[in-house]
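Predict the assembly for these two chains.
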Amino acid sequence: MMVPTPEDLRAAIESGDATIAMLLQNQRVPIVSDSRATFLYHGQADSVALQHWVYGLPSRIELQRVARTRWWILSLDLPRRSRIEYKLVVRRHGHEEWLLDPRNDRIAHDPFGGNSVVHMTGYEEPEWSLPHTTGNRGTFETWTLPSRALQSDREIRVYLPPRYRPNRRHRLLLLHDGDDYVRYSRLAAVLDNLITRWEVPPLVVGLLNPQDRLTEYGADRRHATFVVEELLPELEKRYPIIREPSGRCLGGASFGGVASLATAWYYPNTFDMLLLQSGSFAFTDIGHHTRGPVFDPVVKFMNRLRDSIGKPAKKFYLSCGVYESLIYENRSLVPLLQSAGFEVKFEEARDGHNWENWRDRLRNGLMWLFPVPAWFYYE
Amino acid sequence: MPNSCERNPKFQQPLVLLGQQREIPRLQAVLEQRGISGPVGLVSAGWEEDEDDDQWVRDAVDNPVVNSHLYALADDLFQRDPEVIQLLRERQDRLRELREINELQTEHLGTVARELWRRLETHVGAATSLRQTMEQIQEIDRSYLESISVVIAEYDHRIAPKERPSVLEYRARVLERLQECQALFIAGGHVGVLLNRLNLCRLLQHVQLPIIAWSGGAMALGECVYFYDHFLPHTKREIELSRRGMGLFTGVQVFPRANQRLSLHDSCELGLLARRLKCQCLLLDERSEIGWSADGHPYANHVRYVDENGEVQEWKP
């Protein structure tokens, strides 16, 4: 199918609604051609802007009205293989409304709602992340654990994998924001698929969910105590898991990455593996940071860690989107870990700070941290 | 490339090779076409500790299914006669060393071959150099197979599976489970483990049943076993010659899950694959079927092959 250029679109709009309607028939909007994306909006407005989260570009870019019509258009150069989340900001009579793009059915959900998504040429949603109707599925169990460290009861969900065997010792993955991973990163489908295909071993996965996220996950020692001294023994009591650091991995995204690294740093030789996705690893070399007070304990912790790396784990998988403001901090952590002699895998993606970016990196991360001889399996 | 697809004359039973079955099994249709209505034995040793997790196979066919317990009974043998597992591990270490050397050589030459492939259109001598490089890889593969045959023969001598009482008992227990069966399913899984158990038991030398093998099970029955996956992260792109298979058929090499594991639009990778192997490379998917009737006549449905230019074509024997 021919992809219309921005000039074609403008000409069609100016020719009338029937012409543009015909041109847009069977076209996915935004219209993507190679490294150019064209955004369209139709409706009464005083102005329309593209709100996105690509660090490095102005966070709002105005759409241009086409002649005296109700059509608005913006054409942007975006690198191939990029995946961009956005909203349209429509202003009318002094009011501003953030909208999902009504012409785009690609929506990424997150705890704050959802964003429209544009896939640039070369980006493909990974097949292994799609829920399949065939194949084995894991199951979930939920129970409550009273925590002295956190002074509250905590609901714990545990994923038991396909091929779970009560008489076999399994590896353990503990994930911060676990329910969000399930909701927004399709964690259950990803695990079911990778385990069914022998690409990762059958993992028992503990899903942690915070009550006061930014405090608990901000390198808070009480959270680390909860994870290591309360949760881990309870998991070992309830499930057949390997009771050694070599069988344990701790992970999370954003502040969940900080919580993972901090817990492992406070309790060395507890976890051999860390999965750190877009960790909010803010630090300062000199002076004060500018990320707001919620980052104060994070920066303090990261500065201590950068001063004395300790032995938080042996294997690290880090990933970060190149459109995140945190890319600098994540890139900076890599040589530090490598120079301390740890095994490190760092992967970047043309994506932002979001759950689908973290979803797309799960296969590489889990296969790196939990190698199984998928090479030898043909099922 | 010769198109000689033959069943080993020592194996006189019908033989059927299929692609992956777990998602959309065709096993019932295959049994019906051959008029097999009685119990069917199942070798699922490639699933290792999950050998017994065979409900989906039972659900896929009307026939009773009898699991051979080839894996679990071998574990039992190792408990009773630990020298066997000790020797097998020792053998495995030596085979691994040989494999590493083979990988080192073939990966290095594979890099050269890829560079030459890219120059085929532009450099006059590239075609000849590529042919020479592929001949070197073939020679390395041939020498590697010879070396591993020597190691396997040495350990066969030490384990003595034909006479060793514990192994004889192991075989007897497996055969006893299969004695009422009218056919044998061989499932995939870990192909190395499957081959080890089949060889230790000498199972295929002692059952005379029609065999229906799929995915890794089909790979294990060929002349050689190659491992491949162009899409696994953190691994090499080069295919890996592992070892000799059971040798029930010759002249073709099967590649199950080809759509998922091979980069079918990459003519360079596919072309080099076809040029490295001295037989036809057949791609299997969930609809594929290759078979030999009792009189040895071959047939194929929904099977594609890779030619030396890296093109994928329909294949008929």
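Chain A has a mean pLDDT of 95. The first strand of chain A starts at residue 31 and ends at 33.
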